[in-house]
C-alpha cells in the first residue's frame, strides 16, 4: 500500500476558491463564475479534505450530505465529489490516503453508503465502489423516430423558464423520485445547481427551457431541454438536447417526448442520461435509431454493510448468509445474515455457515437492484457456497425498476 507522506487537513469555507482552481485545472476547463457560486452554495467545508505541499494545494476530496433513493425507500448517503490530485503529485498515493480517510469519516458520520460519478471507471473499484447504476446515452436522428399518435386527450403542454416553475419541478421530482433507486434528494441549493445555465457553457445552444405537461389533475410532468441551430447546404439540422424528462403519467411522458422529437428545424436529439429501462425505447417505431450506448453512472460503496443492507427492501422474501470481505473497512468483514422482503429487512452477524461469499464491491453493485447476482457469480467475484443460494437470493436483490441517475454531482 502506498501512503501519503503529506498530512490531510479539513477544509474551511475560504478554501473553496483554491479547490475550484485546482479542480478546473485537472478537468481542463476555465472558471465559470456563475457555476462556481452555485457550487459554493452546496459545498460543505467540514466534509472537504485537502492535502498541501507546503502552502500549495495539491489534492482534494469532498462529500455532500444527501439522501439516495434505494429499492423501497431512501438512505443517507455521502455524495463524493471534487476529487483530484495535481499532475505534479499524481501516483504517489495521495488519492489512496484521501479515500481511506474519507471512508472512515463517512462511517463516523453514520451514513451507511457513499455514492459517486467516476471520471474514469477504473479509479474506484480498488476502494470498494461497485458499479450500481448504468445509463444509456441516446443520440438519434429525429426524422427516423416516430411515436404512436395520441389516442385521446393527452393533456396540454406549456413552455416556460425552469427557474419560474421551480415549485412544480420540485413537486414532480419528489413524487416520481419516491420510487426511483439512484435518484438523489434535491433541496433549493441542489435545484439551483441543477438549473444553473451560464451562457459560456451552452456551446452555442439556447438557454435551458422546460416543457410542462398538464393532465386532468394539474401539472404532472416536465422535460428540461435546449436547442441549437445548425444549417447545412440542404437545410436545417438543429439539435435538441434533453437533460431530464420526469413525469408521473404515461400521457405526460408520451406528450413531452412527442414534442421533443418533433421540434421544427431540429433533426437530431441527444439525451445522455437515459435510464437503462427508458420507456422511450419501447415507444418509438425504430429504437435502433436512438443509438443507445450503455455507460456507467453511479458507483456505490457500502460503508456500513449491515446498516446498508437493512436500509433497502427486497423484491422477494430472502434469508441468506453472506460472507463479506472488506480490506479498507475491516468492520464489514464477516458473515452477515440478511432477512428481508418487500416490506422489511434486517441484517445481523450470522452464527451459521455462509450461503454466498463476495467482497464489498459486489455488494455496492447489487445495492440499487440493477445488477444480477448470477452476473457477478459468472465473473467469479461472487461465489455460491450453498447450492440453490443464487436462485433463492437472486430475484430478491432485483427491483421492479432499474436504477437510474438524473444529475452528475
Ligand atoms: C468522484 C470524483 O470526483 S471523480 C474525479 C476524479 N478526478 C479526476 O479524474 C481528475 C484527474 N485525475 C486525478 O486528479 C488523479 O489522477 C486521481 C485523483 C484520479 C488519482 O490520484 P493519485 O494520487 O494519482 O492516485 P494514487 O497515487 O493514490 O493511486 C491509487 C491507485 O489507483 C491507481 N490509479 C489512480 N488513478 C488512476 C487512473 N486515473 N487510472 C488508473 N489507475 C489509477 C494508481 O495506479 C494506484 O494503484 P496502486 O495502488 O495499485 O499503485
UniProtKB/TrEMBL annotation:
One of its GO terms (molecular function) is aminoglycoside N-acetyltransferase activity. It comes from the Bacteria. GO terms for biological process: aminoglycoside antibiotic catabolic process. The keyword Disulfide bond does not apply. The active site is at residues 124, 409. Residues 6-150 form the N-acetyltransferase domain. Keywords: Acyltransferase, Transferase. Pfam families: Acetyltransf_17 (PF17668), Acetyltransf_9 (PF13527), SCP2_2 (PF13530). Acetyl-CoA binds at residues 83-85, 91-96, 119-120. NCBIfam families: PRK01346.1-4. Belongs to the acetyltransferase Eis family. This is GNAT family N-acetyltransferase. It comes from Micromonospora radicis.
